[in-house]
From TrEMBL:
Organism (species): Lentinula guzmanii
Any one GO cellular component localisation term in the record: membrane
All residue ranges annotated as the ABC transporter domain in the record: 476-709, 1092-1348
GO molecular function: ABC-type transporter activity; ATP binding; ATP hydrolysis activity
Transmembrane segments: 7-23, 43-62, 274-293, 299-321, 384-404, 772-794, 814-840, 908-929, 949-969, 999-1020, 1032-1051
Pfam annotation, one family: ABC_membrane
InterPro entries for this protein: AAA+_ATPase (IPR003593), ABC1_TM_dom (IPR011527), ABC1_TM_sf (IPR036640), ABC_transporter-like_ATP-bd (IPR003439), ABC_transporter-like_CS (IPR017871), ABC_transporter_C-like (IPR050173), P-loop_NTPase (IPR027417)
Record's signal peptide: none
Full protein name: P-loop containing nucleoside triphosphate hydrolase protein
Membrane topology category: Multi-pass membrane protein
Length: 1361
């Protein structure tokens, strides 16, 4: 009620104040005016002053009430100053004064808690629900995304500053008219018109900044909403979904999604700024026509008719630019996908010496992208020139018709006021032209987003393609169903269920079969991940979700978080249940070795954990969940014998599993079959059988033999291994942890201005001779600006001719010819400079990107471990985009504005030299404001960039774990985390844009003061100046002040965009591996043999970390087969990395007589073949673990199977097929329908269209193709069944030449039992190294203990005998 009364009172006071203005103040503006109430004397002015304070000053300075929250969840104790700012503070953006000046006084790094709290209306929980309900495709049906955005942001915040644009030209006209007539007939005092030169631009600036304030807020919100929408949609699409063009998915989905989120969403959000320019143009066009008609009469219609006739030309050019932009976007997609995949396989590529291929692949994609970027910019220059020339020709035609046809005389007031409007119109057309490219980019991005949201295939239960429900909704299984993986090239896998295949509730169900048969696909089909086809009218598949579902994937999916949070996965923490899970999954001993226990960060993809640890953490997550149904995809394959038996006895047979429905995929049938209640077996041909253990397993001779052999091994399980098994229950250290356990370090942020080295990085890339190049560009721009200023002066000179001679004596044709010549010269010099700059900026972008990629590829394994991929991808997308477009354009515009400002100031000084000091003072004051602004804006921008990467990190983590997230029903958890990260990004982003409004208001006010002061000086203080020269000086002053404002903005914008250069420079200067030298090139014959000699080898995972290998000395003869065995953490994989110098080493390693430390890394690794898993270097977080296992998935590249085996096309198909046959692929897949061929498409990164066993076989085949003298198999067969393993070993014995040395890090002892010698490692030391027979004869030996503890003990002894 009080608000209504206050508002009513303010209106009454304003009306009263308006009455006094009309009666008394208006008269003061006239030469002979007299206030109507002058008899009241000083009381009158007291009344007016009091009314001004009460009606205007008080209402606009009183703080507003807090912005009302729209949701109870948004209520916090903190209030953003913006929410309570007064009207004056809001219009001038003074609410941010305290923050800006505080940052100007301090030069320390900006912390998140120093920022103003987020306004309630900007909080994601308040902002997004309503908007997402409009944009979400299931809700929006087939509606185009743009219409949803317009509905969500339906308030049209039209810019009201357009009419104010004509106040200053009107002031110029009236002032010059007063000077031309010597004041004759004037009724309004000239200072009134002079004041218009101040109030017009100032009020225009206030309204424009208010509009921009709203537009940028919408910009930020739209970008965040689209990111959330993309994530929300991605969490429900089918993982083999089609790509944006409707073709089969052949590219890396993660890279495409990152580009959509990082680039396309940004370009679409930019439309919030662009569309208003286009909407306002017709209004300004009409007002210009009205203003010019008042000055130049009918001639203006002739000029405008010409302009309308020319309109199709820029539209045609725009269509060409749009086509180029679409192609450019596709090329950018290809580059980002290439970088994404390169990062996913970079460790493998470095060990294979394939860095050159990665660089060349990315460079090729980058060259394609830049070729279209160059073409786009050249067409943009053409478009800009067309849009510059059309209004200039319009002006010439108008003046020609006015003087030659209408026989009118040009006056200074007519020329310079009309020129101001023509200049304003030209600026607006240029603004439209400049915004055409962002508009086209935004439209292309909008189409891409819309295609992704509407055309990607959703899971069945999202696209209303539901299956028929089974009679009993609690049923788990299939009936007459067929499932396919589509979008996988020629490898079209099909899983078919004829009749009913059901799983037993409340018991353990085994899913068994050979590698690649489709065991994992059965689980994924149940989860709805595969495409379902009914083959009968009663077809169905069903997995009840009411009691919850948990899932442990074969490829362990680990979040970049602490171990505890990975296990909890959003569930409430129950200490008793949590400890039971750790105990049953055998994790307590592992946690006791971490300095931070379960609070240790595991890094991206769990890089800080061994394969066995990742498998057990993934299992613990599924077991800790309260879900009734538990799906486990081969969790035992990565575990040692005693660990696997512990998990089976304590976990699968424990209280936490009892009573739950478990579907367990496994190869370890002997160990698990005693617990099984039901078995489903699938063959390589796709035949499925089901029943009890007796019905299915014992009726199959192969499976039965494995069970019988396994039982014998378990009966012989030795006591010393049982005692070792008990070490798994050693409790973790119960003392309070003093270390954080962080692996991923906080991203560094620079302080202060962007350093010269960052700018130097760009300048040196412009040209081979950057100084000469820059001077040439500056000279051309200076000439263009000087000629443009001469054009304005020449128009005044033309008008002045009518003052000294008759109109008939003035040669209109001559003046028009000279003016047209000046126009052509100006355009020629400008276009020459701009074109040079485009080619230079393209070259600089190319060089910076190449150096960035070279730096990442040459980085150390340790740096890759501690650096999240999202940080690298942010630089490869947002920062590269900034350098290519925003920064290059900003530097060009800054150079142009600087030179033109200097030219205009010099022009003013010719006619008003005394105004040099005020001009310099205004410039310095503007510079001061710019410095204060930059001290706040730059750290805000840096913090924006840093806070942006976690949003993309959440994207990549979610996409990598799509199946697990959906299985757990954890979509909302990831969406909530995304909203939290968006809020974190909002906090620096919104103040960052508001600081732009702050500086804009202040510089515009300074510009208005300067122009008005110059006008007053020329009218009142310099009576000898002609009207023409006064008009020229005022025009130059208006341009100078506009350029002053633009210069401050452009300088600050350039330094802010240079933050991207700074970030790229930091990643160019990272820690690198040793560079190649001429001394590191071996003789041409090397290596002639596989001889290996190691002396005193020590190694650690970081330069300052503990040693993981201790003084190893041994020799291997050429052609020997050496097996390396040992328990978890013994140093097996560390030794293979040390041989390849992937980790810091000391001592000597001689390969065929040459020390590996003297060889170039590329040469060394190209001549040693390893089948690596995901390689990582452990840091000092785990000082007690001296090595680690690498049981992660084999890395493959996107492309065909042929390109994965032979990336450089060095071998024919027969050789490649022989390698596949040797690795066991053809023996594995037989004559089944799901066979792979050399032309089969492989998806890199996740490679989700192949089983893990198939990927391992391909990795082995790739190693065989290389024919190196030294072959290392690092954990070569953890996912391969015994049959396939036997085929591999047999072919390896026959395939390798007699001089090829084979070193195998064994996961199964059967792999190495017939090797020449076996090395046993323990805690990074060699404890045994001899032939298998000698080691088995050694009483109490470690190797003998491992054999005796194996499930296939009898077979192992038989192999020796």
């Amino acid at each position: 009620m009080s608000n209504i009364l206050n508002r009513h009172l303010n209106i009454l006071l304003l009306i009263l104040f308006g009455v006094y203005i009309y009666r008394d103040l208006w008269a003061l503006l006239k030469f002979n005016g007299k206030p109507l109430d002058h008899d009241e004397g000083n009381i009158l002015w007291f009344k007016i002053a009091s009314l001004a304070i009460a009606a205007i000053l008080v209402p606009i300075t009183v703080p507003r009430q807090e912005y009302p929250p729209t949701s109870a969840t948004a209520i916090t104790s903190e209030i953003n100053p913006e929410e309570t700012a007064s009207i004056l503070s809001l219009l001038t953006h003074s609410y941010i004064d305290s923050f800006i000046f505080r940052k100007n006084r301090t030069a320390i790094r900006l912390a998140q808690d120093e920022l103003p709290p987020l306004a309630k209306a900007d909080q994601s929980d308040v902002l997004m629900p309503d908007i997402l309900s409009i944009l979400d495709p299931p809700s929006a049906s087939s509606r185009y995304l743009l219409w949803g955005l317009l509905e969500a942001y339906s308030e049209l915040n039209l810019s009201l500053d357009i009419p104010l644009s004509f106040v200053a030209p009107m002031g110029i006209k009236k002032v010059l008219s007063y000077l031309e007539k010597g004041g004759e007939g004037a009724t309004i005092r000239p200072w009134v018109w002079i004041s218009w030169l101040f109030f017009g631009p100032t009020l225009k600036a206030v309204l424009f900044q208010l509009f921009t304030y709203i537009a940028t807020r919408n910009n930020v919100q739209i970008k965040a909403v689209l990111n959330q929408l993309l994530l929300q949609h991605s969490l429900r699409i089918r993982i083999d979904s089609v790509n944006l063009s409707g073709e089969k998915q052949k590219d890396n989905f993660t890279g495409k999604l990152i580009n959509l989120a990082a680039s396309d969403a940004t370009e679409v959000s930019g439309l919030a700024d662009v569309w208003i320019v286009l909407l306002c143009f017709p209004v300004e066009f009409g007002l210009s026509l009205w203003f010019l008609y008042d000055i130049l009469e009918w001639s203006v219609f002739i000029g405008y008719a010409f302009m309308l006739l020319c309109i199709p030309l820029p539209f045609y050019i725009s269509q060409l630019i749009r086509k180029i932009q679409i192609t450019r976007k596709q090329k950018t997609d290809a580059r980002v996908q290439s970088v994404t995949e390169a990062l996913s396989v970079i460790r493998m590529a470095k060990l294979f010496g394939w860095e050159t291929r990665l660089r060349a692949q990315i460079a090729e994609k980058r060259d394609d992208e830049l070729s279209f970027a160059r073409k786009s910019k050249l067409f943009d220059v053409l478009n800009a020139h067309v849009n510059f020339t059309i209004p200039m020709l319009t002006m010439i035609i108008t003046y020609a018709f006015y003087t030659a046809y209408l026989k009118k005389e040009l006056t200074a007031s007519a020329v310079f006021s009309s020129m101001a409007v023509f200049e304003m119109l030209r600026a607006r057309i240029r603004q439209v032209a400049v915004n055409i490219l962002p508009l086209i980019q935004g439209k292309v991005a909008l189409d891409r987003l819309d295609d992704f949201l509407r055309k990607t295939e959703l899971l069945d239960h999202f696209d209303q393609n539901h299956t028929l429900a089974p009679p009993d909704l609690s049923t788990i299984g299939f009936r007459n169903s067929e499932f396919r993986w589509l979008g996988s090239g020629n490898h079209n896998f099909k899983l078919k269920f004829e009749g009913e295949v059901l799983f037993r509730p409340n018991g353990i169900n085994l899913i068994v079969g050979p590698t690649g048969a489709g065991k994992t696909s059965i689980l994924l089909a149940l989860l709805g991940e595969m495409r379902f086809t009914s083959i009968e009218s009663d077809s169905y598949y069903n997995l009840p979700r009411e009691g919850g579902v948990s899932y442990a994937a074969q490829e362990s999916w680990i979040q970049n978080d602490t171990i505890r949070n990975n296990v909890l996965f959003g569930s409430d923490f129950n200490e008793e249940r949590y400890n039971d899970v750790l105990y049953q999954c055998g994790l307590l001993r592992d946690l006791s070795l971490f300095d931070a226990g379960d609070m240790t960060e595991v890094g991206e993809k769990g890089i800080n954990l061994s394969g066995g640890q990742k498998a057990r953490v993934t299992l613990a997550r599924a077991v800790y969940s309260s879900a009734q149904t538990v799906l486990l995809d081969d969790p035992l394959s990565a575990l040692d014998v005693h660990t696997a038996k512990w998990v089976v006895d304590k976990c699968f047979n424990g209280e936490l599993i009892r009573g739950r429905t478990v579907l367990l995929v496994t190869h370890n049938i002997a160990l698990v079959s005693p617990l099984a209640h039901h078995v489903v077996a699938i063959t390589s041909e796709g035949k499925i059988t089901q029943g009890t253990v007796t019905d299915v397993i014992l009726s199959d001779t192969v499976l039965a033999a494995q069970v019988i052999e396994g039982e014998k091994g378990l009966q012989l399980y030795p006591e010393h291994l049982k005692r070792e098994e008990e070490t798994l229950i050693l409790p973790a250290d119960k003392q309070p942890r003093t270390q954080r356990g962080a692996l991923i370090l906080a991203e560094e942020m620079e302080v202060g201005h962007v350093g010269w080295e960052a700018f130097k990085l760009y300048i040196n890339g412009l040209n081979k001779y950057p100084v000469a190049f820059f001077w040439l560009v500056i000279t051309l721009v200076f000439l263009s600006g000087s000629i443009s200023a001469a054009q304005s002066w020449f128009m005044g000179y033309w008008a002045s001719q009518y003052e000294t001679q008759p109109a008939s004596s003035v040669s209109v044709s001559w003046f028009l010819s000279v003016y047209a010549t000046l126009l052509v010269l100006s355009l020629t010099t400008y276009s020459s400079g701009f074109t040079l700059w485009i080619f230079g900026s393209i070259r600089a972008g190319q060089i910076i990107h190449r150096r960035f990629i070279d730096s990442i590829v040459a980085s150390t394994f340790r740096w890759l471990d501690v650096t999240p991929t999202s940080r690298i991808m942010t630089r490869a997308t947002a920062d590269i985009r900034s350098i290519d477009d925003l920064f290059s354009a900003g530097i060009w515009q800054l150079t142009e504005a600087s030179l033109r400002m200097f030219i205009h100031l010099g022009s003013i000084m010719i006619f008003a030299p005394l105004f040099l000091l005020p001009g310099v003072a205004i410039a310095f004051l503007g510079g001061y404001f710019g410095q204060v602004y930059l001290s706040a804006r730059l750290p805000l921008r840096r913090l924006m960039s840093i806070n942006r990467a976690p949003i993309l990190g959440n994207f990549t983590a979610a996409v990598a774990g799509l199946v697990s997230i959906r299985a757990f029903g954890a979509e909302e958890m990831f969406l909530r985390e995304s909203r939290l990260r968006i809020d974190t990004w909002f906090r620096p982003t919104i103040p960052s844009y508001n600081t732009n409004r702050w500086i804009g208001i202040r510089v515009d006010v300074l510009a208005g003061i300067f122009t008005a002061a110059l006008g007053a000086y020329l009218v009142y203080g310099n009576s000898g100046t002609s009207a023409a020269n006064t008009g020229f000086s005022v025009t130059m002053a208006v341009n100078f002040t506009a350029l002053s404002l633009a210069w401050v903005r452009l300088y600050n914008a350039a330094e802010i965009e240079a933050n991207s250069l700074e970030r790229m420079k930091r990643y160019i200067d990272i820690e690198h591996e040793e560079e190649a030298t001429s001394e590191g090139i071996p003789p041409a014959y090397w290596p002639a043999s596989g001889t290996l000699h190691v002396e005193g080898l020590c190694a650690s995972y970081s330069a300052d970390g503990p040693e993981v290998l201790h003084n190893l000395t041994f020799s291997v003869r050429s052609g020997e087969h050496i097996g390396i065995v040992g328990r978890t953490g013994s140093g097996k994989s560390s030794l293979t990395l040390a041989l390849l110098r992937a980790i810091p080493i000391s001592g000597e390693v001689f390969y065929d007589g040459i020390s590996t430390t003297k060889l170039n890394l590329h040469t060394l690794r190209s001549n040693i073949t390893i089948t690596p898993q995901v390689v990582s270097t452990r840091l000092v977080l785990i000082p007690h673990i001296l090595s680690r296992n690498f049981f992660s998935k084999p890395e493959l590249l996107t492309g065909t199977l042929r390109s994965n085996l032979d990336p450089f096309s060095e071998h024919d198909d027969s050789r490649l097929n022989d390698a596949l046959r040797s690795a066991g692929l053809f023996a594995l897949q037989g004559e089944g329908p799901n066979g792979l061929t050399l032309d089969s498409e492989i998806r890199g990164g996740g490679s989700s269209n192949l089983s893990v066993g198939q990927r391992q076989i391909i990795a082995l085949a790739r190693a065989i193709v290389r024919k190196s003298k030294l072959l290392i198999f690092d954990e070569a067969d953890p996912w391969i069944d015994h049959r396939t393993d036997s085929i591999i070993q047999e072919t390896l014995r026959n395939e390798l030449g007699g001089d090829v040395t084979l070193i195998t890090v064994a996961h199964r002892l059967a792999t190495v039992m017939d090797y020449d010698r076996i090395m046993v490692l323990d805690e990074g030391r060699i404890v045994e190294f001899d032939s298998p027979r000698q080691l088995l004869e050694k009483e109490g030996g470690m190797f003998r203990g491992l054999v005796d503890g194996s499930a296939d003990r009898t077979e192992l002894y038989r192999m020796i005998i």
